[in-house]
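During the second half of the funding period, the structural biology subgroup turned its attention to how the target accommodates small molecules. The most pressing case was 4'-deoxy-4'-aminopyridoxal-5'-phosphate, which had performed well in the primary screen but for which no bound structure existed. We therefore specified the complex as follows and requested a full 3D prediction, including the ligand pose.
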Amino acid sequence: MIASTIAARDAVRAMKAYTLELRDAATKLNQNESPFDFPEALKREVLERVAQRPWNVYPEFEATRLRAALAAAYDIPAQSLLAGNGSNELLAAAIATFVEPGRRVAFARPTFALYEKLITIAGGEPLPIDFDPRSGELPLDRLVAAVERDGASVVIVCSPNNPTGGVLARGGIERLLKTGAVVLFDRAYGDFDDDDSLPPPDDRLVVCSTFSKAWGLAALRLGWLCSTPATAAEIRKAKLPYSLNIVSEETAIVALEHRRYRDANVAAIISERERLYAAMRELDGIEPFPSRANFITFRCRDARATFDALCAGGILIRDVSAYPNLDGCLRVSVGTREENDRFLTALENLV
Ligand code: PMP
C-alpha cells in the first residue's frame, strides 16, 4: 500500500481533502461568486499599470500601496492591516498565530469547512457548536458558554455564515470579546449584510475580508485582514512573504478607486436576494433559510434529486446536504436577474 509509506501526521491523514463537485453548466450558481465581472475598462487599466512595473523583481514586501488604499477606504491605520492571497491565506495565518496543541477553538456548525481543517492542522481542538440554521441567527449564547464553561480560548465567527446565511446578533462580537477569548471574525459576506460596518479594534479581534464576493474579483485571490497594529505584527510573522502578486495588488487598488461598481453590485445582489427568497417561500416543499449573504440555503423534499434535475437543466448549485445539520439542503448563489429567473422557473417546475 502506497499510503502506508507516507509519513503524514495522523491528524492530516485523518482529514478529508477540500473538494468541489465540478460540472459544466450554463448557469453557475454554486460558489457564491459575483455574477458581475470586473468592468473591461478597469481590467485594461490594471494591465496597463502592471505592464509598466518590473516583473523580474519580487513585489514590494509590505503591499504598502494597497494597504494605504485600504486604510483610506475603511478609515483604519495601515499598520493594522495585512493583505494576502485570498482571505483563506490570512485565516490560515491568524489560526497559526493563535491556535496550538491543547487550545480549544469554538465555532458554530455548520460553517465554512476550512476552519476545522486549519484548527486541526495547527493541533488545536475543534469545539463545534451545533445550531439550527432556520432561525437565521448564530448561537451567540452557546458560543459564549463554550468559552466560559468549556474552556475555548479562540472563537471563529463567520457572519453572515457560509453556508446558512444567518448572522451573529448585533453586539455579538463585543460580547464574545468580553469573555477574554480571541475572536476571529470572517466577514467574507459582510458586504451583503444590512450592517456592513467593522467592529471597533481590539487586540483580541481579527477581522478577515475578501475581494472575492462583493468586488467580483475571485480569480485574483485578494484578501485583507485588520486588527490592531500589535496583533497585525504578530500575524504578519505567521504569514508567507511575497504571497500577493503585483497583478492582484494593482487590481485591488484600481477597484478601490472605483468603489461605485462594488456598491452597485452589492445593491443589485441584495435586491435580487430578497426577491429570490420571497419567491422561494411561495414554493410548495421549499424552505429557504433567512440570508444576509449573496446566497440562499434551502431545505427540500429530495435534495439529491433536485440537485441532479437542476443540473440536467443546465443550472449548477451546491449540494450541502452532507453538512452537519443541513440534511436535505441545497445552496444557491444569487445571480443576475435572468439567472435567478431561470433557477426559479426550473425549481417551480420540479416541485
Ligand atoms: N470565508 C468564507 C466564509 C468563504 O465562504 C470563503 C470563500 N468561499 C472564504 C473565506 C475565502 O475567500 P477568499 O476567496 O478570499 O480566499
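Two results from this model are relevant to the next phase. The first strand starts at residue 27 and ends at 28. Residues 167 and 267 are 19 Å apart (CA to CA).
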